[in-house]
Amino acid sequence: MGCSVCLWLVVSFCRVWGMGRGTRETVLGTLGKATVLWIPQEFQDLTQRFGVAVWKRDTEDPHSKDVLLKYLDGNYTNYNPSQNRFHSSNFSLEILSTKRQDQRLYEYITSKDTEEKVWQIQLEVYEPVSDPDIQVLSWALANDSCTVTLNCTAARGDNVSYSWAGLEASTSSPCAHNGSLLHLSYHLNATSLACACTASNPVSSSAVTFNSSACSFEQRGSARPGPNLVLAVAVPIAVVLIFVGVFTAIHTGQLRKHAPFAEDSEVHTIYSQVQRVEKQKIPCSPPGTEHPSCTTIYAAATGLPPDTAQAPGRIRHSPRAEPPTPQGRSPLSQSPDAEPTTVYASVTLPMI
């Protein structure tokens, strides 16, 4: 009873791993590229002897399979020629453009009468690794030594692993490390120190080099700081600029509010002194005139108004004459190059 159970378990285990029907191998496929499913020479010889072969693929349903191709005595039928290509010279199957859904278990079966041979291929699909990028997370200078923390990352790729190594291929190199992060410390005079980061997965790999001179004073700005350092520098500068802008706007508004309105200096009207005087000994007009009474005289002037103390009659403008200054008032002024103005001269009324 116990031996029967053990034998049944062994047979079941062999069937699960394909040992009961054939041998399984793993093939790595690159996403978007062609993948060839090869069969060993033994199965090629059996196919030529039997003359019958079938390519199949597992589906999501464990009880069904997709038939991809049938071969019979030198002729074959490809059921999906847009995706697969059959090579009759070695009976291999080529997937033209590998997709993620192609990651399945494939079977190549050749048989004759009651004899059947199965070759199983497990296809694993990977996206290739893109070029990695090295970012300086932190750095510090102390005692002529530079200490940096580097992070190596690749933007694309499946199951990516990272490793660091020195270009001098020495096992004692400070660059030797497995993982994306590298804590590196070296003397500033070690200008020849260079570390290479390699990003790889089962189907591809790519490398990039970090030069130790990136920590020197001359090239300190060439190393890309981490996001925390950028924020620590950019945020205070932005706050200061905002405060300066607000203060300037408020101060400018106050100056405009209290500033007097500009006066129009193009045209000015100047009014001279008007006063009532006593009876004049000299008549207001020379004898023989038709109008003996005093009149108001209007004079056109381009400078200051005439002196009101002149004798009545026609007044000629003198450029050097200055108007009288009434008590309690400031004298009126006018720029020499101002436009012509109207001046009202003195008016003297006669005594009755």
From TrEMBL:
**Key word Oxidoreductase present in the record?**
no
Q: Biased-composition ranges for Polar residues?
A: 327-336
What is a single cellular component term in the Gene Ontology annotation? membrane
The record's subcellular location field reads:
Membrane
**Entry-linked PANTHER family:** LYMPHOCYTE FUNCTION-ASSOCIATED ANTIGEN 3, SIGNALING LYMPHOCYTIC ACTIVATION MOLECULE
- Supply the name of the protein: Signaling lymphocytic activation molecule
Q: Which organism is it from?
A: Anser cygnoides
The membrane-spanning stretches of this chain are 229-250
- Keywords for this entry? Glycoprotein, Membrane, Signal, Transmembrane, Transmembrane helix
UniProt lineage: Eukaryota, Metazoa, Chordata, Craniata, Vertebrata
The reply to whether Signal figures as a keyword in the UniProt entry is yes
Which parts of the sequence are annotated with region: Disordered? 303-352
Q: What residue range is the signal peptide?
A: 1-18
